[in-house]
Structure formats: C-alpha cells, structure tokens
Amino acid sequence: MPAHGTGPAGEVDEVARAVLTASRLLLAVSARSLAEVEERLTLPQFRMLVVLSTRGATKLVVLAELLQVAPSTAMRMVDRLIAAGLADRRINPDNRRETRLTPTEEGRRVVGRVMARRREEVTGIVRRLAPEQRASLVEALTAFTEAGGEPPVPPLAQVTPARRTGAGDRTT
C-alpha cells in the first residue's frame, strides 16, 4: 500500500482504499463460492435468499429496503427464487391481505452450502496471516461491521447442522 496519508482526510482515504481492495477479494470469494455450489442464482438473488434465511418471513417492501432495491426489482428477484423452488409466498395469518416471503428448505440448504464453501475459502486466506495480524483484522472488521450495522456471523461451534444457513449474514 502507498505511504500513509497525512491528516484525517488522508487517513480516511487510506482506510477506504484498503476496504475497497479487501472488498474486491471478498466479492471474488463470494462469487466463486456461489458458482461452485449453485449455478442457478445470481449474487443479488443469493443476497436475497440469505436475508430471507436470516430473518424468516419478510414482507416484500421490507426485503426491498434491506437490499436497497426498488420493490419492483425485489418482486422480480422473488419470482425467480420461487420459480427455482428456493422461496415461497405465504399469507400472513394475522393479516390475510399481507403476504410474506420465506425460504424453502431447499433455499436454506443452498445458503448453508454456499456459506460453508465461503467459510472454507476465507479460513484458508486467514490462515496465511500472522497471529497478530489476525487479531488486528478481527478488531478492525468488527468495528467496521458494527459501524455499518451488519449483524455478526455466529461462530462455527454455534452453527448446528440444521442451522448451517449463514444466519447472521444479512446480505452476502
């Protein structure tokens, strides 16, 4: 990485560049893990499936807000997930005019397989870091994700076989 920036603006730019570089790597890991496990889905569709798997029954408008897409875009994505057998529409028993979207069991299995593959690849990268770099990375990424409002992924020991769905992975 180039020389450290001077002053607050330089420091912020340096951090932003480091995060953008890391995000390229993480996006590549995400795309590979999805392509290796599930060829039917695009990355945005998978993001939607992760949100549904994490949150459970969700209204379309809420789903669109969480994914920061237009409701019409979210509807098209949902239609494709339903056609693929990965999501379902259900009437809200408390308000029959309202439908909620849920992942199917197959949808949960797909999320679990993709997230397991992603965890394997990220673990391989992390193993190449020195122990002190790992500790610094955990601290920095925890602060970053908290600042962005992203819920943490549960430790592997807390992910039971029935729940290996990437719960906690809000968007990718």
Layout of secondary structure:
Blueprint: H1 7-37, H2 43-55, H3 60-67, H4 71-83, E1 87-92, E2 95-103, H5 105-127, H6 131-148
Antiparallel strand pairs: 1-2
The radius of gyration is 18 Å
End-to-end separation in angstroms reads: 27 Å
Any low-confidence stretches, pLDDT <50, length ≥5? 160-172
Give the structural class.
mainly alpha
Main sheet summary:
2 strands, antiparallel
The CATH architecture designation of the domain at 40-148 is Orthogonal Bundle
CATH homologous superfamily annotation of the domain at 40-148 = Winged helix-like DNA-binding domain superfamily/Winged helix DNA-binding domain
CATH fold node name of the domain at 40-148: Arc Repressor Mutant, subunit A
The CATH class of the domain at 40-148 is Mainly Alpha
Write up what this structure looks like.
- This is MarR family transcriptional regulator.
- InterPro entries: HTH_MarR-typ (IPR000835), MarR/SlyA-like (IPR039422), WH-like_DNA-bd_sf (IPR036388), WH_DNA-bd_sf (IPR036390).
- GO terms for molecular function: DNA-binding transcription factor activity.
- There is one protein chain.
- The chain has 172 residues and is mainly alpha-helical.
- The protein has a domain of 109 residues: Winged helix-like DNA-binding domain superfamily/Winged helix DNA-binding domain (Arc Repressor Mutant, subunit A, Orthogonal Bundle), CATH 1.10.10.10.
- It contains six helices and two strands.
- Strands 1-2 form a two-stranded antiparallel sheet.
- The longest helix has 31 residues.
- It is globular and about 55 Å long.
